[in-house]
Write a structure and sequence with these properties.
The structure is a single chain. By secondary structure, the chain is mainly beta. Helices cover 0% and strands 25% of the residues. The protein has strands spanning 2-4, 7-9. The chain has a two-stranded antiparallel ribbon. It is elongated, with a radius of gyration of 9 Å. 0% of the residues are buried.
Length: 24
């Protein structure tokens, strides 16, 4: 799952889910 701004967003179809640091 993607972490954006502290929000957990499920990956889109065909998209690779890679954890990354939220932009603060």
């Amino acid at each position: 799952m993607l972490i954006s701004g502290g929000l957990v967003i499920p990956p889109r179809p065909g998209e690779t889910a890679e954890p990354f640091l939220p932009d603060i």
